[in-house]
Amino acid sequence: MSSISLSLLVPIGAVIAALVTGAFSLVNLILAKELKISDLRNEWINSFRDDVSLFIASISNLQQALKQYNANTRESGAPVGDFEFWKNTYSDHMEWQTSGNRILLRIQLASMQGSAVDGFLSEFNEIKSLLNDRNTQDANKHIPGLREYAREILQIEWNRVLKGEPLFILAKWLLFILTTLAIIGLSILWHSFKS
């Protein structure tokens, strides 16, 4: 193989150096974006966990309030007015409605599919339906299933945080290949110049 002339070595070296510099800039951009997406996913995970916890706690509070309401009705022999019940449980109703709507808005993303999401939504809708009928005992029976599906969803999302986004994984591999080729190109140039 004939050696490369000095006049070609400088432009080729400059191109390879620009490629290496661009590669490091790309790495920096990818890492910054992936860090931001990881932060957003962590925030989503924490918010989802908080909303599911609040939803379950408000169901427990409503169940206790309904037990008390039924006990008061039995003791007095006459039904305590619905107005009193709603007045006493307004904050719990607001909590389960608000947290329930936040859960639905979080979970119904286009990227979320699978049996865990389907199971969660099935349990969630069943609980909401039962609560609308004031059937807190049956609603309470669905809480363990809801909690288990929520754990699966949280685990799936956490694994996505650890693994990274598919586009960024591809970009990292392309960057690795580009950097390797640039190093090989520089070493070939170096050895041709030495010969």
Tags for this entry?
transmembrane; mainly alpha; transmembrane helix; CHASE3 domain-containing protein; membrane; 88% helix; 195 residues; Four Helix Bundle (Hemerythrin (Met), subunit A); 6 helices
Assigned CATH class = Mainly Alpha
What is the rounded Rg? 30 Å
**Which CATH-level-2 architecture?**
Up-down Bundle
Number of domains: 1
Fraction of residues in β-strands: under 5%
Distance between the termini: 10 Å
How many distinct helices?
Answer: 6
Helix-strand makeup class? mainly alpha
The major β-sheet equals: none
Mean pLDDT: 80
Helix-residue proportion: over 70%
CATH topology: Four Helix Bundle (Hemerythrin (Met), subunit A)
Please state the overall shape, judged from the principal axes of the Cα atoms.
rod-shaped
Outline the low-pLDDT stretches: none
Order of helices and strands: HHHHHH
Protein name: CHASE3 domain-containing protein
Transmembrane segments: 6-31, 173-193
Keywords: Membrane, Transmembrane, Transmembrane helix
Organism: Thiorhodococcus fuscus
Give a written overview of the molecule:
Keywords: Membrane, Transmembrane, Transmembrane helix. The chain crosses the membrane at residues 6-31, 173-193. The chain has one domain (6-194): Four Helix Bundle (Hemerythrin (Met), subunit A). It is 88% helix and 0% strand. It is built from 6 helices and no strands. The chain has helices at residues 6-76, 82-107, 115-132, 136-141, 143-163, 166-194. α1 packs antiparallel against α2, α1 runs antiparallel to α5 and α3 (115-132) runs antiparallel to α5 (143-163). The radius of gyration is 30 Å and the shape is rod-shaped.
